[in-house]
Amino acid sequence: MAKGRYTRVQGKKRSTFMLVLSMLFMLSLVLLMLLALGIVSLPISTDDSPTDLSSFRRKISERGDGLGERGEQWTEVISWEPRAFIYHNFLSKEECDYLMSLAKPHMVKSSVVDSKTGESKDSRVRTSSGMFLRRGRDKIIRDIEKRIADFTVHTCRGSGKTITTKENGEGLQVLHYEVGQKYEPHYDYFLDEFNTKNGGQRVATLLMYLSDVEEGGETVFPAAKTNFSSVPWWNDLSECGKKGLSVKPKMGDALLFWSMMPDATLDPSSLHGGCPVIRGNKWSSTKWMHLDEYKV
């Protein structure tokens, strides 16, 4: 009698073990399918350092609408404090040329926002020239803005709000930096109530590079909490670029960084600046995203 009970218990254990094995096998198959489809990606790192995020990649398979042909698109995590990502080949060469051609006849000296009045004012901390393009002004701009919205859609958990650039984004700003021109480190978020009346706080910034730069012109994050020298382009940076986590301008690439944390608090590690151009010219285009709808 005892022997029969033992056999039944042993059979139940074997059945449970086979069930667990079957479930693990099915989960492995599902994971392999997701990896194959590009829905899930694994980090690939060439450095043993846990702070080296330069080679964390995710391939983008969706090309979407747009002017001209883009190269292979993939995203790269460069920092978690601040949260910063590079979208490679975000724009085609034709789209970069188009944005510059729209802007060139209307460029004026860049200004900064007065925290007391909300008006633009001249400042030595920003020596570039620039202009704004009306949001949704033509099909090419709408295609680019739709691509930005798809890339940057995000929810701030502390506020429960979903952030997209379709309603929450400002118009594109096109900027030109000549040799010696720069933008000193600053925050994109506001510390006053006046500038948050329209759209609330600035949440994130997408910076698109419209041209290559022979030397200098990097976007630098001096307060980033990561290993600055872990990026593979470290040896190509200017002296200014080596003072923080830096991204070299590359035509067609887009840099996305968040000025606020997921809980809707301001992120001081998002301090950033534009290093002086040493050789060549730097063209870029910026889209700022707000917490609420931004009325143009």
TrEMBL record:
Cellular location(s): Endoplasmic reticulum membrane
InterPro entries reported for this sequence: Oxoglu/Fe-dep_dioxygenase_dom, P4HA-like, Pro_4_hyd_alph, Pro_4_hyd_alph_FE2OG_OXY
EC top class, as a word: oxidoreductase
Keyword annotations of the record: Dioxygenase, Endoplasmic reticulum, Glycoprotein, Iron, Membrane, Metal-binding, Oxidoreductase, Signal-anchor, Transmembrane, Transmembrane helix
PROSITE patterns on file: FE2OG_OXY (PS51471)
Main location as per UniProt: endoplasmic reticulum
This protein's GO CC annotations: endoplasmic reticulum membrane
Cofactor(s) needed by this chain: L-ascorbate
Keyword Kinase belongs to the record: no
Protein name: procollagen-proline 4-dioxygenase
Record-level Gene Ontology MF annotations: iron ion binding; L-ascorbic acid binding; procollagen-proline 4-dioxygenase activity
Family in the record: Belongs to the P4HA family.
Enzyme Commission number: 1.14.11.2
Chain segments annotated as transmembrane: 20-44
Mode of membrane association: Single-pass type II membrane protein
Species: Quillaja saponaria
Catalytic function, reaction form: L-prolyl-[collagen] + 2-oxoglutarate + O2 = trans-4-hydroxy-L-prolyl-[collagen] + succinate + CO2
PANTHER family: PROLYL 4-HYDROXYLASE 10-RELATED, PROLYL 4-HYDROXYLASE ALPHA SUBUNIT
Top-rank taxon, per record: Eukaryota
Domain spans labelled Fe2OG dioxygenase: 168-291
Keyword Aminoacyl-tRNA synthetase recorded: no
